[in-house]
Amino acid sequence: MIRNNASENRDSAASDRLRALQVLAEATSTLPGDSGVEEWLGRFLATMVRLAGAAAGAVRVVTGDGRHLRLVASVGLPPEVMAHERLMPVNCGVCGIAVAEAAVHLAPAGAACAGVTSLAWFGGFGGMVVLPLVHQGRSLGTCNLFMRDQRTIPPEVALLYRSIGEHLGMALENARLAHENLRMTVMNERQMMASEVHDSLAQTMAYMKMRISLLLDALHAPDSARALKYATDLQGALAEAYADLRELLAQFRSRMDPMGLAHALKGIAEGFEERTGIKLSMENSLAEIKLTVDEEANVFHIVQEALANVARHSGATAARVTIGERGGDYEFSVEDDGTGFFALGTRRGADDQAGLRHHLGVNIMRERAQRLAGRIEIANLPGRGARIRLVFPADPAARAAAQ
Fold first, then answer.
1. Residues whose CB is less than 8 angstroms from the CB of residue 178 and which lie 6 or more positions away in sequence, other chains included
2. Is the link from the previous residue into 155 a cis peptide, with omega within 30 of 0?
3. pLDDT (tens digit per residue) in 227-268
4. In a domain, 337, yes or no
5. If you average pLDDT over residues 37-43, what whole number do you get?
6. Which of 171, 296, 363, 394 is in Cβ range 3.0-4.6 Å of 261 for a Cys bridge?
7. Burial class (CB in 10 A: 0-12, 13-18, 19+), 351
8. Which domain holds residue 265?
């Protein structure tokens, strides 16, 4: 029995729809892993070429300057074509039209590419499907499928192809946002490290520089009493700078415990008395602490800095860390039985330099608390001692909304 052209066209369209549905199912069932989005695109392209019945394929992404398309994955392209197509203008041929219009396009491969590139390889194909990789109406790249035979794209198949392109575009955008977030995290940590170095060593060094000037004046006077006082001040400041340096190095080398924040804080408590001579207890009333890795790191460093201030400036014999929740907020408190604070964080009875250092340490904690949409509360305890408390929303949505 001889089948007519209309029947064959219907069968071809149905086959194209089935293949497009298979590709869409494959696309929506996977997401880029730790290996990166470009490697994932390469693996997915091989699947798409196979399911779509194509002979070859390529994935290109728009470069950061928006002027070029960069080849990131290919299947079936010979080396000379890959070398030529590594970077091409964003407005080149059918690919440029697909990017500009954010729409699926079909063109004769030989006519579309062979004339532009002068590569005979493209002339061996009867058609080329160009899928724009779209996210929120913006084209982020293209996926090219090279077909041996020339074919049409029914509207319903074009719609499925567009859905595939949107999924791939979403993957590209997510990868970009993840990379941007990582870059911002690194920049913020570097800024925090610079602030901590400035607020500890730089301030102490400035104090020592002033004392050296006074010491030289006293030696030229000569005034042995004054010279002895300034030399003693320098000796104390140098000892403090050395202690600060050791502490900063320990903080920079520290990493969040893979077992989570609570376990990491227990690690701080272990050996605290041996290192400082101050007894430390820890009370945790939370069964679970729901924080991101970055949020855990900020809490960890705040508690670490608070305990460091207890060790350096409080004159305490005992301290306590409490972890709990009240009124929809997480609360992390560090209390001691030392000499206490003034309202702005300056220890009572401290000399100017120690008071300045303590106040700057509190500022570092406040900066980290702001990243948690929270605050640092400082209070003197009745009779003797002080408390530093970190308070921030327990609800992740509330933290995100407050940023």
1. none
2. no
3. 888 888 888 888 777 776 766 665 555 555 556 788 888 888
4. yes
5. 79
6. 296
7. exposed
8. 255-403
Of these ranges, 31-40, 41-50, 133-142, 190-199, the one predicted with the greatest mean pLDDT is 133-142
In this prediction the pTM is 0.46
Please indicate, yes or no, if residue 237 is contained in any of the structural domains: no
Q: What CATH number corresponds to the domain at position 387?
A: 3.30.565.10
- Three-state SS for the chain is CCCCHHHHHHHHHHHHHHHHHHHHHHHHHCCCCCCCHHHHHHHHHHHHHHHHCCCEEEEEEECCCCCEEEEEEEECCCHHHHHHCCEEECCCHHHHHHHHHCCCEEECHHHHHHHHHCCHHHHHCCEEEEEEEEECCEEEEEEEEEECCCCCCCHHHHHHHHHHHHHHHHHHHHHHHHHHHHHHHHHHHHHHHHHHHHHHHHHHHHHHHHHHHHHHHHHHCCCHHHHHHHHHHHHHHHHHHHHHHHHHHHHHHCCCCCCCHHHHHHHHHCCHHHHHCCEEEEEECCCCCCCCHHHHHHHHHHHHHHHHHHHHHHCCCEEEEEEEEECCEEEEEEEECCCCECCCCCECCCCHHHHHHHHHHHHHHHHHHHHCCCEEEEEECCCCCEEEEEEEECCHHHHHHHC
Residues 168 and 262 in one domain: no
Instruction: State which of 179, 194, 229 marks the end of a domain.
Output: 179
Domain's final residue, options 179, 206, 232: 179
| Overall number of domains in the chain | 2
Residue 246 lies in a domain: no
Asked whether 361 and 346 are in contact (CB, 8 A), the reply is no
Cα torsion 48, 169, 79, 115 to 10°: value is 100
CA angle, 128 as apex, 124 and 130 as ends, to 5°? Answer: 150
The band of 216, judged by pLDDT with boundaries at 50, 70 and 90, is confident
Q: In the structure encoding, which two tokens stand for residue 138, read together?
A: 């913006």
Tell whether 240 is covered by a domain.
no
> 325 forms bridges with which residues in the sheet?
330
